[in-house]
Design brief:
There is one protein chain. The protein has about 280 residues and is α/β, with parallel strands linked by helices. It has one domain (about 5-270): NADP-dependent oxidoreductase domain (TIM Barrel). It is built from ten helices and nine strands. The chain has helices at about 35-45, 60-70, 90-105, 120-135, 150-155, 180-185, 205-215, 220-230, 245-250, 260-270, and strands at about 5-10, 15, 50, 80-85, 110-115, 140-145, 165-170, 190-195, 235. The strands form two sheets. Strands 3-4-5-6-7-8-9 form a seven-stranded parallel beta sheet. Strands 1-2 form a two-stranded antiparallel ribbon. Helix 1 packs parallel to helix 9. The protein is globular and about 55 Å long. GO terms for molecular function: oxidoreductase activity. It comes from Rhizobium hainanense. This is Aldo/keto reductase.
């Protein structure tokens, strides 16, 4: 029997699964749409009910795939999407959100993120987000690819303290946020969403990760996900269009890594000893 998926609590008090589903590169080809929809539905069946997408992914195609996958199951899903910085003006964010809602075939987005910082003042984007929240179009808003200085600035603008999450690149080979951003967010109960948790597959060929995985009769991807599941306040959003891999991702929750093997992973993927620029893909 599988262990339940751990949860992360958002500032609103809503609990979401610490293991969700990403959709980067979905929606780019009609030939793969059926498999993408099947994999997302498989994840929902397994309790991975947080789905992350963005208007940028496949120029809206990813949101359309998600809309088809959640049809008839909307209330099961915690839906995350993101707005382009170029659309993050007072008026543009509202219009972009409306387009996303149409593609997703829903009346609300649970968490709406600014994809990265652009030229519009944070105060203006936050004002747009708060307006969308008041209108019931979104339930909460957050940011993506924000470092500590960006977060400090965000909290200084009106209603900036309502930020509900920060989505950043974080995995075994990209541990820079552990030096400052992760503890900063943990102290303020702002969840981190970890995108590309297996470094788009590049992590999977690392010899030490392979060796540790064999110890647990697991895949390297499962160990990489188990690493993130150990972190407080971190939500991991692996992407897969393969239903079997979705099952494997779900089973990463059952892996209990010993202190000795954590030490081996720390030696192979050292935590940061100084401030680093925020990694992005």
């Amino acid at each position: 029997m599988r262990e339940p998926i751990p949860t992360v609590t958002l500032p609103s008090g809503i609990m979401v699964p610490a293991l969700g589903q990403g959709t980067w590169n979905m929606g780019e080809s009609a030939a793969t749409t059926r498999d993408e929809i099947t994999s997302l539905k498989t994840g929902l069946d397994l309790g991975m009910t947080l789905i992350d997408t963005a208007e940028m992914y496949a120029d809206g195609g990813s949101e359309e795939v998600v809309g088809k996958a959640i049809e008839g199951r909307r209330d099961e899903v915690f839906l995350v999407s993101k707005v382009y910085p170029a659309n993050a003006s007072r008026k543009g964010a509202v219009e972009a959100c409306e387009r996303s809602l149409k593609r997703l075939n829903t009346d609300r987005i649970d968490l709406y993120l600014l994809h990265w910082r652009g030229n519009y003042p944070l105060e203006e984007t936050v004002e747009a987000f708060e307006g969308l929240k008041a209108a019931g179009k979104i339930e909460a808003w957050g940011v993506s690819n924000f470092d500590v200085n960006d977060m400090d600035e965000l909290l200084s603008v009106p209603n900036g303290g309502n930020v509900a999450a920060n989505q950043v690149l974080y995995n075994l080979s990209r541990r820079g946020i552990e030096y400052d951003l992760l503890p900063w967010c943990q102290e303020r109960s702002i969840p981190i969403m970890a995108y590309s948790p297996i470094e788009q597959g590049r992590l999977l060929h690392h010899p030490e990760l392979i060796r540790v995985a064999k110890t647990y009769q697991a895949t390297p991807a499962q160990i990489a996900l188990a690493f993130l599941l150990e972190r407080d306040g971190v939500i991991s959003i692996p992407k897969s269009s393969n239903a079997q891999r979705i099952e494997e991702n779900r089973d990463s929750i059952d892996i209990d890594i010993t202190d000795e093997d954590w030490a081996i992973l720390d030696a192979a993927f050292p935590p940061p000893s100084r401030k680093k620029s925020l990694d992005m893909l």
